[in-house]
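Onboarding guide, step 5: your first structure request.
Type a short instruction followed by the sequence, for example:

Predict the 3D structure of this protein.
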Amino acid sequence: MPQHARLNSSASYRWLNCPPSVLLSEKYPDQTSPYAMQGTDAHTLCAYLVEKALGRDSPDPTENLDYYDQEMQNCAEGYAAFVMEEYGKIKQTCSDADVLIEQRVSFAQWVPEGLGTADCIILADGVAEVIDYKHGLGILVSAETEEFGGNPQLMCYCLGVIQMFDGIYDIDTVKMAIYQLRRDNISIHTMTKAELLRFADEVLAPTAQLALKGEGDFKAGSHCQFCKAKATCRKRAEYNLELAKYDFAMPAELEDYEIDAILMRIDQFTSWAADVKEYALNQALLGTDYGHFKVVEGRSNRKYVSDDDVASAVQKAGYDPYKKKLLGITAMTSLLGKKKFEELLGNLTYKPPGKPTLVSKTDKRPPMKNTAENDFKE
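The system replies with structure tokens like these:
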């Protein structure tokens, strides 16, 4: 397997945290999910709409997209508008700024065979901006991280930009942006070139060497989510099974500091348990006997053989088989488009208070006021 496949930029957050996971994962086959294919289609549409907004000739790919829908169109249009807005800001200070779409970049100076494809790069005198489109709904992606400052994937892209274009534009500042409309998330982080190069020399390059040799320490954490070895990794099992020391006692029997320790890991624990269970099911279907478990057919509900035939039969009997219901806000936005939705219905919507949710203090949302204290005052 080529080295660039081992140390690709999109997986950099994982292998920077857990270098030996690279070689460990090689024994597992690559798997492509419908979500990944949907993301690929979304990126293709995004690239086309940006090229179109820039006045460049580009074939419309819509009819060839397997996962195209109105929501994807709305997201891609929003991304294109965001790119043009960022481009407009930079052009105010540099009239000959340039925009590169789906640009292949090399950061091999720090990572052997290091290659990646940046969704959008805006180049101008003194500054380079990398914009990354995220179509996924499950994970909120930030342009900065606590461990490395910036998002490692975007920092690799920025290093590629410096390696390829610094001599032309004399870059001293890099700007990284994540556009994730389905999560209402636009995240931007800025670094100096000096800060980026320090990360590259002191963290990225030496960790890449460890990863290629299968050296360094295994480390479990949120970065495990997209690791191919996540279900069978012993370090991840040890990390999560530390919760077993509490014997899953009822909360009333635990001290506050113990509950705090459990809460710190509970999401990763449940994710790990689900990964192990899914892996075991797939292996059992292939013939593995786990001793205390067997594969059975799950429960299912009856389905219509043909919706049209059912509707016809019910109508002939004198009944109305359909139920009319007002579209929800998400479906209505997809129907009308975000701009038209706001124009027609902006003053007919409201946002009620969200349900109280316990999250880490690293979450950027402001804390709720003490509702129990307020109730007492009232």
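Each response can be followed by summary notes, for example: Strands lie at 98-106, 115-124, 127-133, 144-145, 149-150, 173-180, 185-192.
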